Amino acid sequence: MRAPNAQPQPVGGLARRLAHILTTRGIDPTSTPQGGPEPVPALLAAESRIPARYRGATADHPAVAAWVREIAAAGRPGPGGAPGIAQGRSLLIAGTTGTGKTHQAYGAVRSLIGAGVRLRWKAVTAADLYADLRPRPGHDGERELRDLARCPLLIIDDLGAAKYSEWTEEITMRLMNRRYNEMLPTLVTTNLGMADLRAHIGDRVASRLNEMADKVILDGPDRRRPHAAGRRHPAAATA
Question: Which site in 33, 51, 135, 230 is 20 to 30 Å from 238, CA atoms measured?
Fold first, then answer.
């Protein structure tokens, strides 16, 4: 078990890329990212868009923390010198239900903003994505798809959980292909293993996701179950 104050360390190829980026910019790879201009107000503003359950989320998995540092280091300076997201690797967080995938995803957003990165981002579950883009009178789904494709950082939560159809596969392909071509960071979470995910989203999407994204596998028990048990047996929980 990691000590409470221990800093998560980058791992594998992600660590090597991160160290190279930081070194070429004259930054010590072992240093902690410094906050940019007024990170606290920016974080407070962002948290109004983060679901209440995840407003205290932290990106404490070593590989997720390394990805955050890499994206922050690669940002282009903008007004006032604060870095903004440009291009970068994507991240696929996989694991069974309740292992903390969504927690890590929102923790990554909070960490980037807390480090002073100017960040325009959007988060959506796969099910809501398809519901929002489904053709209906008075709704411009094509415009919304373009906006999602151009967003500097997009979180797609629970990919593979929505009902599959040829239409959902085509929508996913169009969205991911545009982000793949522009090399825009996309953070994807899924409950499925890679073989099952490929079967669900199709070979074309899976191939692009495999190339564009680093992969993090979360394991362990369902963290929600102890909380549910405590609500069912309050006396036992306080004993």
Answer: 51
